[in-house]
From TrEMBL:
<dbReference type="Pfam" id="PF00005">
    <property type="entry name" value="ABC_tran"/>
</dbReference>
<dbReference type="GO" id="GO:0005524">
    <property type="term" value="F:ATP binding"/>
</dbReference>
<dbReference type="InterPro" id="IPR003439">
    <property type="entry name" value="ABC_transporter-like_ATP-bd"/>
</dbReference>
<keyword id="KW-0067">ATP-binding</keyword>
<keyword id="KW-1278">Translocase</keyword>
<dbReference type="InterPro" id="IPR027417">
    <property type="entry name" value="P-loop_NTPase"/>
</dbReference>
<keyword id="KW-0472">Membrane</keyword>
<dbReference type="InterPro" id="IPR050086">
    <property type="entry name" value="MetN_ABC_transporter-like"/>
</dbReference>
<protein>
    <submittedName>
        <fullName>Phosphonate ABC transporter ATP-binding protein</fullName>
    </submittedName>
</protein>
<keyword id="KW-1003">Cell membrane</keyword>
<keyword id="KW-0547">Nucleotide-binding</keyword>
<dbReference type="InterPro" id="IPR017871">
    <property type="entry name" value="ABC_transporter-like_CS"/>
</dbReference>
<dbReference type="InterPro" id="IPR012693">
    <property type="entry name" value="ABC_transpr_PhnC"/>
</dbReference>
<dbReference type="InterPro" id="IPR003593">
    <property type="entry name" value="AAA+_ATPase"/>
</dbReference>
<feature type="domain" description="ABC transporter">
    <location>
        <begin position="2"/>
        <end position="235"/>
    </location>
</feature>
<keyword id="KW-0813">Transport</keyword>
Length: 235
């Protein structure tokens, strides 16, 4: 699904990624585990071209990821993001936030007017149902708790009907109980819908609990790769 070969990313004189080779299989829930500054964010940003790799090759379904406008449009349809700080629009309703996941799919004149076809509204509500927030659809998003906002973030990603979801520290701002709830929603949705997920985490407990496979990153390199059972305390 995603093939990464010899990926390097340099910021000035600083090498944030040093020769990353990684295959992500279709439908898997891959956790990228590592401390702050390891390069996890940079890895995700290179995959969806929010950052331009310095060198190396990234392919999705065998197609090289490129940065021309047409490739980026295709990439944005295939790949959805979930962020640590949710990136929801506070003053918009929950449903409107989720509908922004449909922006790539509707004619732009409709999205400027914030008019969405009935079909897209139905998709948004179905995604809200997956994170059990359908009863909050009409509320302003800034009235929700952090965990609920991240569930909106998940629903928005699902509304995009992506092949791949890249989640960058989705629970780093949440308490342990809420974190597990949020990761459960993400994992369950991805499993039911067959979406490939790459999820950055810095807590080993969650990596062990939710990762089907775990890649440990430190100092811009992969330092561990294995199943949750192979993960011991000192990654
Ligand atoms: P992580 O997500 O694991 O915390 P990041 O990928 O955000 O790690 O960052 C890896 C390293 O690259 C850090 O040392 C960070 O300061 C540096 N870095 C990230 N983005 C930039 C940037 N735009 N310019 C310069 N340095 C950056
Ligand atoms: P994270 O939550 O992934 O650790 P950061 O707070 O490190 O994120 O980075 C937030 C933003 O700032 C990102 O866009 C990252 O690329 C950029 N950034 C991080 N470190 C640096 C740096 N040393 N110089 C410039 N930009 C940076």
């Amino acid at each position: 699904m995603i093939e990464i070969r010899g990926l390097n990313k340099r910021y000035g004189a600083f090498d944030a990624l040093k020769g990353i080779d990684l295959d992500v299989k279709p439908g898997e829930f891959l956790v990228v585990l590592g401390p702050s500054g390891a390069g996890k964010s940079t890895l995700l940003r290179c995959i969806n071209r929010l950052a331009e790799p310095t060198s190396g090759d990234i392919r999705i379904d065998g197609q090289p990821v490129r940065s021309d406008a047409a490739s980026l449009r295709r990439l944005r349809c295939q790949v959805a993001m979930i962020f640590q700080h949710y990136n929801v629009v506070p003053r918009l309703s929950v449903q409107k936030n989720v509908l922004t996941g449909r922006l790539g799919a509707v004619p732009s004149v409709l999205s400027w007017l914030q008019i969405f076809p009935r079909k897209d509204v139905a998709i948004a509500l179905e995604c809200l149902r997956r994170v059990e927030l359908e009863d909050k659809a009409e509320l302003r998003t800034d009235t929700l708790s952090g965990g609920q906002k991240q569930r909106v973030g998940i629903a928005r990603a699902l509304a995009q009907q992506p092949k791949i979801i890249l989640a960058d520290e989705p629970v780093a701002s949440l308490d342990p109980k809420t974190s597990r709830t949020v990761l459960n929603y993400l994992k369950q949705a991805s499993r039911e819908l067959g979406i490939t997920v790459v999820c950055n985490l810095h807590q080993i407990d969650y990596a062990r609990e939710f990762g089907e496979r775990i890649v440990g990153v430190s100092g811009g390199r992969i330092v561990f790769e294995g199943g949750p059972d192979q993960l011991n305390g000192d990654v």
